[in-house]
Amino acid sequence: MTREQARKAAEELVSRMTVEERAEQLRFDASAVEKLGVPAYNWWNEALHGVARGGTATVFPQAIGMAAMFDDEFLEKIADIISTEARAKYNALSAEGDRDIYHGLTMWSPNINIFRDPRWGRGHETYGEDPYLTSCMGKAFVRGLQGNGETMKTSACAKHFAVHSGPEAVRHRFNAIASPKDMAETYLPAFKALVCEADVEAVMGAYNRTNGEPCCASSSLMKLLREEWGFEGHFVSDCWAIRDFHENHRVTSGPTESAAMALKAGCDLNCGCTYEHIMEAYDEGKITEEDITQSAVRVLTTRFLLGILGDNGSEYDTIPYEVIECKEHLKMTYRAALKSCVLLKNNGVLPLDPEKCGTIGVIGPNANSRAALIGNYHGNPSRYETVLEGIQDLTAGTNRVLYSQGCDLFKNYVESLAKPDDRIAEAVAIAKRSDTVILVLGLDETLEGEEGDTGNSYNSGDKEDLLLPEPQRRLMQKVLKVGKPTVVVLMSGSSIDPEEADENADAIFLSWYPGAQGGRAVADLLFGKESPSGKLPVTFYRNEALEEMPAFTDYSMLGRTYRYYQGVPLYPFGYGLTYGKYSILDLKAEDGVAHVRAINDGNAESDEVIELYLHDEGSPDAPPNPVLCGFKRIRLKANEEGEFSIPIDPNAFTVVDEQGRRVPGSGKWKLFAGFGAPDKRTEELTGYKAVCVEING
């Protein structure tokens, strides 16, 4: 069904509804209209990295980990699997009369906000700090969710529009002030790409105000979305964001006025309860029947596009429940974990050889943690494999594996009646009796996440600093002091400064929140069954860099992210080691395409990511550092060469001026090709300097 056909069907259906019945369709828990054969429908479902909160599902690595794959084609396949499982659940559960929350086909994903500040707790839900990478990954995820069939497979939603990235503690009353340049250059490009290039079906407004206007009733944002970008889908509020109009932003006097303000601005669907007051607003003349009708047509158009209204059905109606967590889907989440993990340091200790590494001590609060596998907004896998279990399984029959939790994730003790550091002596004893130590540290969704979502212990979900929690730092110091070959595995969704581990650990390995099969993938990478190949989609800073950054509440990009940061990062954007040894042999650029010849000089077959960066040499409006403009994941055998063509982002040849206008660049550019951002720190860490050519246009 085309959009035009779906819209006409929606218009005809709405014409037979009363005004009150139309208004009831604008709530996330839409009522049935039995006389017209319209079943009840709950719009709220989540699919950040798997069907979430609705029972058993395949759980993929957290979104930030999937961004680290730098592989949009593979991400599209993942999103297709997620939509398949969503359809399977919908088919089975609606047949049982279950139309509850988290069981529908309207997926409120992806989160394409920019991870601008490393303290933001929800940053791990995003695709990182770069607008181009976020756009590429976001478009792929939308295409995978929505499919290309005659009917829409599931509905994707670009959120949170716009300029939303903390602080979590004040998000319900915060006014994010962003310059026209930062809006056009950083905060809006991914939304524009998903609307204009991926035809995303829904857009969700943010809690905060942007430049003074509540995002769910912003005339400037709505004009941009509907008139300039031509968005034809429906707009949904974040959950209870419209209530914030009167309770927190104080721009209205009460819920009736808030409902009217949002609806007239173009917010079609309310996640929350404020649209229960729409009929009051209608009776008081604050909104018209046309306002209600327009939004009802928009939301019902989506249901027709999904094939869940009318008599035609869908080609997806026969997807069986048995596809959920099937062998193929579990294999894909394992492969995603392999692609997403980032090797930050290796002095040669990795890959480990079971025949040579002797007794293995696995230590740390995340070593046997299920929570650290799955991040937030997750489903419920029927089987988990923790890092400890993955190592035990891989080395069974070859190595003795000793284990200690070492410490709590953030509390000073594990047992409530014990003295502080009640597991450290055990951890040290194990380290002394081991030939190789794997120290598994980090965070989970209780330490970085959404405000109010899980009872976070740190500042409503945001991080106070970039350091590990104090008990983990004490554990790490004691274990490293033993002096055994030690690999530190970090499980987190954001920048962590591991302090002395950067100097004293033999290897540092970042697994993010790697999904239900993550422990097996981590073990296989540590022991060389596969090579790490993930790349950082965010800059890892030293903790003291926070003192140089603008305040968390300052939305200026100056001094933030790899494009504008002038200091020396701990681990740069785009960085990640492999067990291979790649180099670029030749780089040419013509007609907007880079032609790259690369070789793997190493002894191991491995994936690698070729990254392209462009720097405008003459425009004062260009960011000070080269900007990502293309990437391609490749795989070469040992001593194999390959030639690869990589499109260059056309926007890379433009700049955004202070008025927010995108204009042609200077005509003098440098194009870099390498395996990370072309900066001195990357060169220092990798021993490799990116190849550069000049482009004049």
Question: Largest sheet, order of strands side by side?
Answer: 9-14-13-12-10-11
Largest sheet: number of strands, sense, barrel closure = 6 strands, mixed
**DSSP helical segment count:** 21
Mean pLDDT: 97
CATH class of the domain at 337-562: Alpha Beta
CA-CA gap between termini: 44 Å
Uncertain stretches of 5 or more adjacent residues: 454-459
Please tell me the CATH architecture of the domain at 337-562 by its name: 3-Layer(aba) Sandwich
Number of DSSP strand runs? 23
- Rg over CA atoms: 25 Å
Amount of beta strand: 15-25%
Look up the CATH topology of the domain at 337-562. Rossmann fold
Tell me the structural class: alpha/beta
Name of the CATH superfamily of the domain at 337-562? Glycoside hydrolase family 3 C-terminal domain
**Residue share in helices?**
25-40%
- Gross geometry: globular
Question: Any key phrases for this structure?
Answer:
Immunoglobulin-like; 4-stranded antiparallel β-sheet; 6-stranded mixed β-sheet; globular; 697 residues; Rossmann fold; alpha/beta
Report on the architecture of this protein.
With 697 residues, this protein is of the alpha/beta class. Among the domains are: 337-562, Glycoside hydrolase family 3 C-terminal domain (Rossmann fold, 3-Layer(aba) Sandwich); 582-696, Immunoglobulins (Immunoglobulin-like). Helix content is 29%, strand content 17%. It contains 21 helices and 23 strands. Strands 9-14-13-12-10-11 form a 6-stranded mixed sheet, with helices on both faces. Strands 18-17-22-23 form a 4-stranded antiparallel sheet, with no helix packed on it. α17 (470-482) links the parallel β12 and β13. The longest helix has 24 residues, at 72-95.
